[in-house]
Specification:
The structure is a homodimer. Chain A is an all-alpha fold. In chain A, about 65% of the residues lie in helices and about 0% in strands. Chain A is flat and about 65 Å long. The first copy, chain A, starts with a helix and ends in an 11-residue tail after the last helix. Chains A and B meet through α3, α4 and α5 of A and α3, α4 and α5 of B. Chain A binds a DNA duplex (30 and 30 nucleotides) through α2.
DNA sequence: GCTTGCCTTGAAGTCCACATGAAGGTTTAA
DNA sequence: TTAAACCTTCATGTGGACTTCAAGGCAAGC
């Protein structure tokens, strides 16, 4: 398949695919007689892998280092493991930050008093909130006030 | 407290704090007679809030839009809610992407055979993996091969 | 034979989120 | 009084991850 089809299949732009190849995030792609890229499913899978790791916040540089190690012939599983574990730790921290932010926004959302469509549940929350305010040393949602 | 102390307290550079103020991610900061920023705990909390949201991948632009709505006097809770919910959806998707990538890397890590320090557990996994290979149509870890 | 639509490479441009530098002001300590 | 150590604003620079542009090649259809 040509690069445009690959782009449509993966959702990654043609330019980005070329960029990934140049940066060795994906293997060197086979060419047709005239020099056009001929992309197979192995490449598609590797593009998807890159996409997933990129979406998770892995940098091009880290990704390249990792893939380099992975593709190397020598017995470097120890370094691979270390790199993986390092990356894993970064990603887990990021996930936890994200979860904290999500919890935060959810808290805000649940303590909202929407004047236009007040439900009983919201009114009850409002009362509860009001009660809490009196005994307040609550910090959780205080940045924005 | 001056900007340097605030920077040390929050781990955010002085330049970044000035930038956040300019971009209205934090409120306008009070000044001393000579024009220096005098930062109080309210600002510190808002810097931390920005840091948290940034760490979770919220863009400056989205953050600004959100805070703008939040700080506004008018009754715009409906829009606030919509924006919050929108942002929440983005963040949840991001968290799930992240979790998928973490699972992926964990899978890899658990299927590693480290020649240098082979534990019994790893050997058992190796056997299990070998057995799986025979009945294989397993795709999960196939990108890099 | 010319247009359309794909492709190629290489260089240059863009966007974000700051970082850094220049030019200058104030307070503190020697 | 002079240097150090803060601070200010405004302008420009930087790094990462692409995107866009320029200049040209190949194949199909009219």
């Amino acid at each position: 398949m040509n690069i445009k089809e690959a782009s449509e299949k993966t959702g990654v732009s043609s330019a980005a695919i070329r960029y990934y190849e140049k940066e060795s995030l994906i293997p060197a792609i086979d060419r047709t007689e005239v020099g056009n890229r001929d992309i197979d499913d192995r490449i598609i899978r590797r593009i998807r892998f890159v996409t997933q790791m990129r979406a998770a916040g892995m940098s091009i540089e880290n990704l390249r280092r990792y893939i380099e190690l992975f593709d190397a012939q020598e017995d470097n599983t120890k370094e691979q493991k270390a790199l993986l574990q390092e990356q894993l730790a970064v990603m887990e921290e990021k996930r936890d930050d994200l979860q904290a932010a999500i919890d935060h926004l959810n808290y805000k959302l649940n303590h909202f008093y929407d004047h236009m469509e007040t439900t009983e549940a919201e009114l009850r929350q409002l009362e509860k909130q009001h009660a809490e305010k009196l005994e307040s040393t609550e910090q959780a949602d205080d940045e924005l006030k």
